[in-house]
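Quick one, tokens below. Sequence please?
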């Protein structure tokens, strides 16, 4: 009788462990929430904040600068819009399934009679721990990451001197990761 009880308990524990690992994608990303569990760098920190904004919670992304907003089209999350300063606006969205897309638009640099703005594009892939960009990383740090650290203060584990563990790859087409 004791053997049957021990086997039954072992089966139940195994089922619970397998279910937990399945629902958390081996503790990397939650299936239900979409949140990254092991945050290795500032881009994963921002990824989780965009997830929170998508789910209706306010973060420093929308509360630090007046005019920042979350854009929903037909009830579906599209992007987070941040007017960083008079020169630049940043748009955060998800691309290629679940990569973080970061667009930096120059507010005062119009082409084609004011129809389009010059932009820089960066894409962070949490699975490969890689940031792809069509402009040098220093531009992203100057325009967006530096102000971001001033918004979060010392409450996060990364700072301007320590962005965490990731690789930057310059590529002409960051959305498709070609050119590297």
């Amino acid at each position: 009788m004791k053997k049957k009880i021990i086997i039954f308990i072992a089966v139940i524990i195994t089922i619970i462990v397998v279910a937990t690992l399945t629902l958390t994608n081996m503790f990397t990303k939650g299936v239900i929430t979409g949140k990254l569990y092991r945050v290795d760098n500032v881009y994963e920190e921002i990824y989780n904040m965009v997830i929170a904004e998508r789910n209706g919670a306010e973060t420093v992304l929308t509360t630090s600068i007046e005019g920042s907003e979350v854009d929903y089209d037909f009830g579906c999350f599209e992007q987070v819009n941040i007017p960083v300063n008079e020169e630049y606006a940043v748009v955060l969205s998800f691309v290629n399934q679940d990569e973080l897309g970061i667009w930096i638009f120059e507010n005062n640099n119009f082409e084609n009679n004011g129809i389009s703005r010059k932009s820089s594009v960066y894409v962070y892939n949490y699975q490969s721990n890689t940031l792809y960009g069509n402009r040098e990383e220093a531009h992203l740090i100057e325009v967006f990451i530096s102000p971001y650290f001033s918004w979060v203060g010392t409450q996060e584990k990364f700072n301007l001197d320590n962005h965490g563990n990731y690789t930057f790859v310059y590529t002409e087409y960051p959305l498709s990761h070609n050119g590297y």
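The CA atoms of residues 87 and 108 lie 6 Å apart. The longest strand covers residues 99-111.
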